[in-house]
Amino acid sequence: MSTRISSSEFSIRKPWLVIFLIAVCTGIEGLLQLAEFLDLAPRLRATVYENGGFWSGLLRNWQPNYAAQPYTMFLTYGFLHGGLVHMAVNMLTLWSLGREVVDRVGSWGFALLYFGAMIGGGVGHAALATGPAPMVGASGALFGLAGGLLAWAYVDRYTLQETLWPILRAAAILAALNLVLWWAMDGLLAWQAHLGGFVAGWVLALLIDPRPHTE
Fold first, then answer.
1. Cβ atoms within 10 Å of 91's Cβ, excluding its own
2. Residues 138-165: pLDDT tens digits?
3. Of 31, 45, 137, the residue nearest 88 (C-alpha)
């Protein structure tokens, strides 16, 4: 039996890059968990953090482990996580938000937004954080995806002359979530990276696709 497929079904873009990023982050955390469980390399996680985490001190007077570290850490920190729960929550969020971004601007647009927001998260952390501890996690980039989606929603709703309250409400919820998590985690939440990623994502989204989608 044959069937006709609507043109809208052909327009759905496959989130291959999202899947790849989830696989890489999951693989790295899985390797670290396995090494710890089997006691194969007790210091492996510490070594990975030392070389791949975001250390604000490297932008001041700290001595890097390798020459490019003060630059590469703006990306490498986003592939590391603080444990299975941290990684799982971030990857579920990446899957949810990433598909929406890919569906709007494709894989290249997603890549520009994701990695640009990751760098923005590092800039935010470097500018606002004061502690010596390293920062790891994809949440700076994820807040960038959220910022980008809200920016596009703002443009779309403004063009259609619809109320902007849903945009303001979503932004308020994200701010409240950061406040609650910061309190629950005893101040260990890297809200500076979240803020930097969100702002970078909002700006980049309007550069990547400034046109309203009204259909």
1. 21
2. 999 999 999 999 999 999 999 999 999 9
3. 137
What burial class does residue 175 get, using C-beta atoms within 10 Å of its C-beta: 0-12 exposed, 13-18 middle, 19+ buried?
Answer: middle
Structure tokens at 144: 């960038």
Q: Mapped to the 3 state alphabet, what secondary structure does 111-130 carry?
A: HHHHHHHHHHHHHHHHHHCC
CB 144 within 8 A of CB 117: yes
Measured CA to CA, the distance from residue 42 to residue 47 in angstroms comes to 10
Backbone φ, ψ for residue 61 (5° rounding): -120, 15
Least confident of 11-15, 17-21, 77-81, 190-194: 11-15
172-178 long-range contacts (CB < 8 A, ≥24 apart) are 174/143, 174/146, 174/198
Burial string for 111-143 (b: 16+ CB within 10 Å, else e) reads: ebbbbbbbbbbbbbbbeebeeeebbbbbbbbbb
CA dihedral of 120, 179, 134, 30, whole degrees rounded to 10: -90
Cβ contact 137:81 at 8 Å = yes
What residues are annotated to the active site?
139, 194
Spatial distance between the Cα atoms of 136 and 94, rounded to a whole number of angstroms: 15
